[in-house]
Design a protein that fits this description.
Shape: globular
Strand order of the largest sheet: 1-2-4-3-5-6
Helix content: 10-25%
Radius of gyration: 24 Å
Number of strands: 24
Oligomer: single chain
């Protein structure tokens, strides 16, 4: 059913089980009746085209849905104190029950949205609220810890510092202005302090360089939990307990989606792998916040964008089936965009069962091949005073992200580069990539970073994915094996292209620096495991 009438916009309020009022915007068809509800819960404001809320609301309403966007506790017009992910399970349960029993609701609720709006869905779903039929989390982290750290306690510094400084702090200032406890002049002073309008990138780098990482005077009042995050790298700390998704309790199907350059890519894919059943997975050539065909000059073709795949239509197909019982037009369990081929492909599942995990060995002469290494070693420096700068990848920047050319770093002597011979035929790598490295160091703690790169015939070195591992408690002369998870990827290396692996001691500010200065030795046999598709 479609509705040609205009949509009605109203402000709605509900009360949580502990007496906190949460405020939402409701859009619904301008006719009497009860409608299935699509609910999103956000800390980023209730603008119809705001962060994380990327479907066409008028089209959803015209299709007969009531669409609800709710300020989570302690944000926007909602009461209470923002705990950032922690506590969203109970509030999400209460919000679903409220939406299912509202006078404009037919009792069937779906949830959707990106990033924070994605994890609020998963946390609500694990509480099994009556009325929730399906969810659609996009670029959603696995939990609060993954927002802040890599496995092993290396900070996701670029992401969490940028989000804190440019999103959470600004939203809190807007909230205080609306409450009369701050002024526009306070906000203007803050924006100038973080470098707007002309020095933002430079200023964020300066903030990243502060040590200890918890020492951020600009954030101490506006984002007080930032310092707690930075001082608790152990995933077992009780701080992280309430922000972990319990997939075993989720019974509703999930349309999970992400991008190959999303910094929550592996957490998102992990949601699908743990849920399966009737759930679905879509992975495109996207970043966390960019869904166009062109990413920093790399054009993935006319099939690549959200517009090309009709992102709103994909969600309508999903929710029409689960909330209304309509036949689902698209029955594909997994859809991946294979970069290099620059085309979509359907799969029965993920990981792809026919993939072969092939070790490519890092040889001391800088070559990369399936021929086992016979030994040897090479050194790279780890210097927190002169770290290898981040260049692209899954980062939160405004002008340099995704598949950037790595050649500007080629003059640095603290990066080990290993290249294959030019390929004679297409070679597809689709799945989880890992570097298994044998290392020693002159310091008791050392970081090992790795990048998988597609080298084009013209020399362009296109970054595909990267990762980091921290090795602690090294004794002098001790050689230890460490696994660096570079995460999931799907890329077809074309004929005449080369596969390249870069190994270094830092990738800053994507990852927080190791404070120890030393020389790390990469020993053979070390190798990267590439899941190749026959």
């Amino acid at each position: 059913m479609t509705y040609a009438t205009p949509m009605i916009e109203t402000t709605e309020t509900m009360t949580t089980r502990d007496g906190v009022e949460l405020v939402a915007t409701l859009w619904r068809p301008a006719v009497d009746g009860r409608f299935p509800v699509l609910l999103s819960r956000t800390p980023y404001g209730r603008a119809v085209e705001g962060p994380g809320f990327h479907l066409d609301v008028p089209r959803l309403v015209a299709a007969g849905y009531a669409v609800v966007l709710q300020d989570v506790r302690g944000t926007g017009a909602s009461q209470g104190e923002l705990q950032f992910v922690s506590g969203e399970a109970a509030d999400g349960h209460d919000a679903v029950r409220w939406a299912a029993t509202a006078p404009w609701s037919d009792g069937n609720v779906g949830m959707y949205g990106d990033s924070y709006l994605g994890i609020t869905q998963l946390l609500a779903a694990q509480e099994r609220p009556e009325g929730l039929r399906a969810i659609a989390p996009h670029v959603a982290p696995a939990g609060l810890y993954e927002c802040v750290y890599q496995p092993g306690g290396v900070p996701n510094l670029n992401v969490i510092l940028t989000v804190s400084a440019m999103v959470l702090a600004v939203d809190e200032l807007d909230r205080r202005i609306s409450l009369g406890t701050a002024t526009q002049e306070d906000k203007d002073r803050y924006l100038a302090a973080v470098g707007l309008p002309d020095r933002l990138g430079e200023r964020l780098l300066e903030l990243s360089e502060r040590l200890p990482l918890s020492d951020q005077p600009l954030l101490a009042d506006l984002v007080p939990f930032y310092a707690s995050w930075m001082s608790r790298p152990d995933p077992r700390d009780p701080l992280w307990r309430d922000g972990v998704v319990d997939h075993s309790r989720i019974e509703v199907p999930a349309l999970v989606s992400t991008g190959w350059y999303d910094y929550f890519r592996d957490g998102s894919i992990g949601h699908y792998e743990r849920l399966r059943g009737e759930s679905r997975l879509i992975v495109g050539p996207w970043t966390h916040f960019t869904h166009e065909r062109d990413i920093c000059g790399r054009d993935y073709g006319d099939q690549a964008s959200h517009a090309a795949v009709d992102w709103t239509g994909v969600h309508l197909d999903w929710f029409d089936h689960w909330l209304r019982g309509a036949p689902m037009r698209d029955r594909a369990r997994v859809k991946i965009f294979v970069m290099g081929d620059d085309a979509w492909r359907e799969e029965d599942d993920w990981p792809i069962t026919r993939a072969r995990r092939v070790p490519y060995h890092l040889h001391v002469d800088g070559t990369l091949s399936t021929r086992p290494a016979t030994g040897g070693s090479a050194e790279f420096a780890g210097d927190p005073g002169d770290p290898v700068p981040t260049l692209g990848g899954a980062v939160m920047t405004f002008d340099a992200f995704g598949p950037l050319d790595q050649r500007p770093l080629d003059e640095r002597g603290d990066v080990l580069r290993h290249r294959s011979e030019p390929l004679g035929a297409r070679l597809e790598v689709s799945g989880e990539v890992e570097l298994v490295a044998r290392v020693s160091s002159t310091a008791p703690s050392a970081d090992v970073t790795a990048k998988l790169i597609d080298v084009h015939p013209d020399g362009r070195a296109e970054l595909l994915t990267d990762g980091v591992a921290r090795v602690e408690g090294l004794e002098p002369g001790e050689v230890r094996e460490v696994t660096v998870r570079l995460g999931a990827i799907s890329n077809a290396f074309r004929p005449r292209h080369r596969i390249r692996i870069d190994v270094a001691g830092s990738n800053f500010p994507r990852f927080g620096r190791n404070p120890e200065k030393g020389t790390t030795t990469l020993h053979g046999p070390s190798y990267v495991v590439l899941p190749t598709i026959p």
